[in-house]
Amino acid sequence: MTRYFIQRPIAVIMTFVALIGLSVLAWLNRPVSLLPDIDVPEMAIRVDYANASPEAIENNILKPMRESFTTMQGLSDLQSAASNENGLLRLRFNYGQRMDLAFVEVNEKIDRLTDQFPADMSRPRVIRVNYTDIPIAKIQLIPKDASNMVESSRLAENVIKKRIEQIEGISLVDLSGTVEEQIKITPDLKALERAGLEIEAISQAIQAANQELGGVEVKDGQYQYYMRMAGRLNNAEDIAAIPIRISDAKYIPLHQLANIKTAEEKVSGFHFYNQNRGIVMNIHKQPQAVMTELMPEIEESIEQFKMDYPTLEIAITQDQSIFLKAGINNLQGSLLFGGLFAFAVLFLFMGSFRLPVIMGISLPLSLILSFLFFEIFGLSINIISLSGLALGLGMLIDNAIIVLENISRKRMEGLNLLDACVAGVGEVRGALISSVLTTLAVFVPLIFLSGVSGVLFFDQAVSVGIILTVSLGVSFVLLPLLYRLFFEKKKDFKKEDSRFFKSIIRGFEKSHHWSFRNKRLSFFLILLIIPLGLWAFWSLDQKGLPDITRNEAVVKINWNEPIDVVENAERTKTLLQSLDSQFQFSETDAGIPQYLLSLENAELQESLIYLQFENEEIKDKTLTAFEALVEQSYSKASFEKENAKNAFDMLFASDEPYFRVQWQDPGLKNADPQSIKPKLENFPADQYQLGPSLEEESSMIMMIKQAELLRYGIAPDQIISQLQRVLGDYKISELKQFAIITPVVLETDAKAFEDLLKAAKVKNSEGKSYALGNFVEYEWGNKLKKITADASGTYFSVNLSEEALPKDPEVLTAEINQWASSHNLIQKVSGRYFSDQENLKELAFILLISVVLLYFILSAQFESFWQPLIVIFTLPFGIMGAVLMLWIGGSSINIMSAIGMVVMLGIMVNDAILKVDTMNRNLKALEKKDKESVYEAVFSAGKIRLKPILMTSITTLLTLSPVLLSGGLGAELQKPLVLAVMGGLTIGTFTALYFVPLVYYRLAS
């Protein structure tokens, strides 16, 4: 087959040119995004119900929804949390569930429940959780005139938002911080008393003056007209002029009984940028969009907005495309340095510039051809698939080096050019195919990991498989053809190695003879790497992601006091101003944000602050001072700080506590802290953290005096409606002008609560007025802030961190079971510890499957049951070498270092397979099978395979080394991977050169 392709150069070249053209088209059409388009089996339902208590939201809304959703197919978990004015219900399904169908079913169930929900509540919002929903950037809109928020909000919603969404590739612009306009009616209680009127008289007058006629038709002969009511209210002046009847002959305008003004609506949250109130836009892209092309278009639009709307200050923050750019830059750097170092290594070892040029053609060509298969398999260009290409790039170099070196060696043995090309490829074809299959045997089973890890590994495994398969095609078809074309006019082929390699091979011969003369010492020195690696492993930290420079932080402050959102915002602004601008900029969400895609169950008394610093040192110093300032100024406030989450943190981080105990109390009647917390006095662990269901807040409990109502002949509905008018913002009506709807709201003076109850009046059936305070009584007390529930009902919980666990989790679980039994509680233990244990068991099983596949593939290659074990036994040495290098480099065991170990094992296996394959060929060529013949076969194979093993290892090490010397986010993410590959490959090279021959000799002789 190789001879057939070599003899038809024009057909082969034209075929590759056509494939390159198709690959370029595939590259241009492939979506470029930060992460793969993962169909996450998770859904959230947000409930917003103004002025509602957690009990009302739980009983009236969340409980009916939970009961309806429990019958859904594929549902694995259901959790809800109800707090003041909002609730959140999260549904988790099994992976593989059709989430588009589940989304439709959830909405249908909510529609069926609509009649059971309170009439004044907006429809619950169903949000599909998707990791691609992470905003690619945020746009800050700050009015230069702070009093201009209403007009700025209309400009943001009606103009800027729509113009950005018109950019191709933008799916949604999610806003927070906007405010609407409303007309506020503040009654003058004394004027009403002098006029002998009640507050409801104002409501009735406005509603009567703002009536619509409805669909009335008038016929005039053959013509037909629709009638509309003239004189509808249009603005605050119209309302102020409404006449109110005092007596049979006396009317006064409304403005004499109330203060009427146009103002901002009452909001539940504010957004601030550098302590200036503003509006924020979260920019979300479509899954198929090219992120690197979107950001320049967004930046261009922002520059145009700055010129068009000078009343706004506009800035872009939290640009997530930096991660994708870092991945692309790393791939470009790997390709560039891989080519340069491969050129240098080939030149030193081979003494010819033609071979490096051939390498320089094949590397980018293989990479370009890979994108054609990206199109076929439907992969996007993202961080995960790019990392797969970068990982496969090192193995691609190895295949090319092995083929070129073997062809050159055949020519040195005296074969002509064509026969050398054919024989050189044919001799290593089986070994290279086996090495690719063994690499895939390590990667591919990882896609069967459950959860998001398996989905992510799919992209990586497929991209690695693509580039390795492409590299085989290039190595078997194009490389021998290019070799022939480059060398056919060169008559005087150099039939000896370069001086550089001659010196290396002399040193190898000496060391090889020494290792066989001192077999026990050699085995001891090699086996010593195992205990050293184990010691290093237990010394290393284990983390999800590597430590990277974090100049951003997120601070969450909960005041734990019943303050309104305005006071919350003022406190937050005051604290930030006291930091003397030690940060570059800040973003603050005080209260409940308005984001459509928000999955946070925020509170009015809570502020979330994003801070950008110049460097980590200033960040740590400032956050420490910030925390001390909060503790000093507000003793009840809780302060939480963490690094700002980037896309990778959001993907891999889990909000699940390390160890959680949740319980239900069948005998509990009143969910108050006094009846729940005493049971925790003999809890088996001391340093626990109360779950959200046990957090307290001060609240007022109001009771209606039923006996007084009966005595004075007043209906309970009158009391409730009057309380709504007096104590809350009571919506009277709304003004409609084209697309603008302006609510008309009744608002009382900001008086003391008791004064309002005394001033407000209610009338009985005889028309006599009495003070509202005569019919109600109230008391202050602590109530639970949130109500948490799952499919079985409401529950309470406590959490324990890894550091706070007093003993082994399994022992603690047994003690918790006894504690629950003694209190007649129904308990359940869960948390990240148990899920991690399941993941480790699953990973161990999958790795076992990988080793079994590896054994089967090598058994078929070597036609032996014991020779594959030689290759497999080299793998622990590589892992220990990787761990030692991680320890030396001051890194940790994390996702990136684990990926590096997998890559390193693929490269190690290649070297060992080639070595064993060559030893088998040499031994087969010899007539005798005694010890001397085995040693001769082993020694000859060592010299034959020394050059490709050293070239592939040195090229890979030099290609990766620039990452260790560079800085920036991309380099910091890649350093653990590079350290793992370099450490494992260094040890792996020595095992291929010395350990494999020693074991082969021992077993074959």
UniProtKB/TrEMBL annotation:
Record GO cellular component, one term: plasma membrane
Source taxon at top rank: Bacteria
Ranges that cross the membrane: 9-28, 331-350, 357-377, 383-404, 436-458, 464-486, 521-540, 843-862, 869-889, 895-914, 949-971, 977-1001
GO MF term list: xenobiotic transmembrane transporter activity
Keywords of the record: Membrane, Transmembrane, Transmembrane helix
UniProt key word Membrane: yes
Protein name: Multidrug efflux pump subunit AcrB
Organism: Marivirga sericea
